[in-house]
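Morning!

This is the sequence you dropped in the shared folder:
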Amino acid sequence: MTMKRIIIDTNALMALVQFKVDIFEELKPCCDFKYEAAVLKGSIDELKKLAEKDKSKESRAAKLLLQLIKSKKLIVMLHPEGYVDDLLVDYSKRGSLILTQDIALKKRLTRPYLTLRQKKRVIMVK
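The structure's back. Tokens below.
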């Protein structure tokens, strides 16, 4: 059985802090196959920009998420320059599962993809 790659979008990462959801625990019942969690370098760059802002809630959340990405040993996917959503759509077409909360992005993704239901459970949309 091949390993699936789940790419977590920036706004799904922010849900960890916003809704206090452990998306890593939530992936387990939803994904009954081998997978590895990843994040795009572009998402890390977005978080770094947010982290540099003043003492905003977003800034604190971004700093926390950058630490979490390291501690969970998420794969950081290097990619050509480009709009992160376009890259996610491309990875989706090539078989990666994308975890996102972004409504506009969800409309563009190839199914299946992953999203948060009721701000607390990860579900697969087929």
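Headline: The first strand starts at residue 4 and ends at 8.

More detail when I'm at my desk.
O.
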